[in-house]
Write a structure and sequence with these properties.
Order of helices and strands: HEHEEHEEEHEEEHEHEHEHEEEHEHEH
CATH superfamily of the largest domain: P-loop containing nucleotide triphosphate hydrolases
Distance between the termini: 28 Å
Low-confidence stretches: 362-377
Helix content: 25-40%
Mean pLDDT: 93
């Protein structure tokens, strides 16, 4: 958590998203630009970006795009943020983008050049790389008082899953999805924003690297935990945030039906012990992100499975664009675009579900073993 690393926030940040800002692989930079409360982005490094600002890639933003750290220094940054992993690496040739993932630690020469330039300029370095930079020679090049923060370091506590809620205050909404890079984090943060606008004390429990950079209430890089301890870690994060909030938003990873990541997604879902679930889906996506030979499951198949595994109803579906909203209209649930005013509809659906659930469980039954969620008072 950056609040534990730095006494003064937000930091003025240069985001490194070389080659990927306008592509799905740039999702971390896009999330920081759109939602961060702990980083004030003053410039983005992306040599292949054809525009002078981020406006075209991330609507609603207008941050300068530059070709190097040296150019970004004109905007007086405090920190250089590597807002991508080795596996996000891509190349653009003849105007066409090609995803070219790199092995962990195999950084291109330009990436090392930019890291050394940032260290030489006296900037803090925040890194989403799998390679832990604090263990490299870069540490010796940092100026006095400047820090390397490896965002993807493992969480120091790996508690055993208890199976007992222990919650005394907060209701939990879990945001699940049908695939990777489908909009779960954007949905979670827009739902949080809408709930707060109604005066609901709402926290965000993050489960990935971007959550640390946007400013979550509690969070961890869940894929760095052993799979048999992931649910316990999520439960721990929820319980840590519970006393301070009336509503908590937890964000899933990938999909419970994803062959590579389904175990992790299920651990996060069940560790969250949600009272309601929001499902994010893109009906245009037929195959899985970077697994083009694997089909994406139909929502009619995945929604009932989420309800069975999570013990809570799916109350709304989030997608992107009005055409997609219309395409999913037959699911029998509210379908919205949270970037087009739809987050309030999600809050209404959550509120109705919590009100109905409290009629059957009582408003404060938080300690019984999980035979279904126990929602507190509705919003």
């Amino acid at each position: 958590m950056l609040a534990e690393e730095f006494s003064r926030l937000p930091l003025r940040a240069v985001l490194f998203a070389d080659g990927v800002l306008a592509h799905p692989e740039g999702k971390t930079a896009q999330g920081v630009l759109r939602h961060s409360t702990v980083l004030e982005t003053v410039a983005v490094v992306d040599r292949s970006h054809g525009a002078r600002t981020t406006a075209g890639a991330v609507p609603g933003t207008d941050v300068p795009v530059v070709s190097s750290v040296e150019q970004a220094l004109a905007y007086a940054p405090d920190a250089f943020v590597v807002a991508m992993t080795e596996s996000d690496h891509g190349e653009t040739a003849d105007g066409a983008f090609r995803h070219v993932p790199l092995p962990s630690g195999d950084l291109p020469a330009f990436w090392w050049d930019q890291l050394r330039a940032a260290a030489g300029a006296g900037l803090h370095i925040l890194s989403c790389l799998h390679l832990q930079l604090a263990g490299t020679e870069l540490r010796e090049q940092m100026a006095d008082g400047r820090r390397i923060v490896d965002i993807r370091r493992p969480h120091p506590h790996l508690p055993k899953y208890s199976g007992r809620s222990g919650r005394t205050r907060a209701s939990v909404v879990h945001v699940a999805g049908s695939d990777c890079v489908v909009g779960k984090r954007t949905a979670a943060l827009e739902i949080q924003r809408a709930a707060r606008a109604r005066g609901v004390n709402t926290g965000y429990v993050g489960t990935g690297q971007t959550c640390q950079l946007v400013g979550c209430t509690t969070g961890a890089i869940i894929d760095r935990a052993p799979v048999f301890q992931a649910a316990g870690l999520v439960e721990h994060l929820v319980l840590a945030a519970d006393p301070h909030h009336d509503l908590l938003i937890t964000k899933g990873q990938a999909s419970v039906l994803h062959p590579a990541f389904g175990g992790l997604a299920t651990s996060i879902l069940q560790g969250s012990r949600p009272d309601a679930v929001v499902f994010v889906h893109d009906p245009r996506r037929r195959t899985r992100y970077h697994w083009e030979h694997l089909p994406v499951a139909a929502p009619e198949r995945e929604i009932p499975l989420l309800e069975e595994l999570g013990g809570a109803p799916v109350v709304a579906v989030v997608t992107r664009g009005r055409e997609n909203v219309r395409a999913l209209g037959g699911l029998g649930l509210p379908v919205v675009d949270v970037l087009d005013g739809g987050a309030d509809t999600v809050i209404d659906a959550v509120d109705a579900a919590l009100a109905e659930r409290s009629m059957f469980t009582g408003p404060a039954d938080r300690t019984a073993p999980h035979a279904g969620p126990h929602a507190g008072p509705h919003l």
